[in-house]
Write a structure and sequence with these properties.
By secondary structure, the protein is α+β, with helices and mostly antiparallel strands. The protein has one domain (2-128): Ribbon (Umud Fragment, subunit A). Helix content is 15%, strand content 43%. It has two helices and nine strands. The chain has helices at residues 9-22, 123-128; strands spanning 2-3, 24-30, 43-47, 59-64, 67-79, 82-88, 99-100, 104-113, 116-119. Strands 1, 2, 3, 4, 5, 6, 7, 8 and 9 form a nine-stranded antiparallel sheet that branches. Strand 5 and strand 6 (82-88) form a beta hairpin. The longest helix is centred in the N-terminal third of the chain and has 14 residues, at 9-22. It is globular. The relative contact order is 0.21.
Amino acid sequence: MGVEPELDAIAMDSAIDCLQRQGAISLRVSGRNMTPVIREKDVVTIRETAVTTMGIGDLVALGAGHGVVVHRLPGIKETAEGILLLTKGDSQSRVDCPWSSAQYLGRLETLNGPRGRIDLTSRRWRWTNRI
C-alpha cells in the first residue's frame, strides 16, 4: 500500500523531507495490500519515531525509492549488519523481503477514513491488533 500515484518523485521527496523536518505528515493511501484495516483513499498520519520504539504488530511507513510503503510489522531481526524489518500487507499471504532500518520512516499514528478517525497508538488498538 502506498501513496497516491499522481504524486511525482519531487513531491514525494518533499513529503518525506517534511516528515523528517516536522516529525509527522498525513498522506492519502492507494492500493489494497492493507485491507481491511486501511482502505484505498484513507488518510494516514505518519509520526517519525526511533526504530527501537517499534513493536510487533505496529503499522509502519518505509521509504521505497521515491515512494512510501505502509505495512504491518510482524517481526524484527537483528543481524551483524544492523536491524532488519519484516513487514507484510494484511491482505497478503507472505512476508515482504526484509527492509533495512535506514528505510524506516515512522509509525502510523492515526487513520482517517469512512469509519472515522482511529488512534493507532491507543492501548485498545494496540491490544486488539497485536499479531
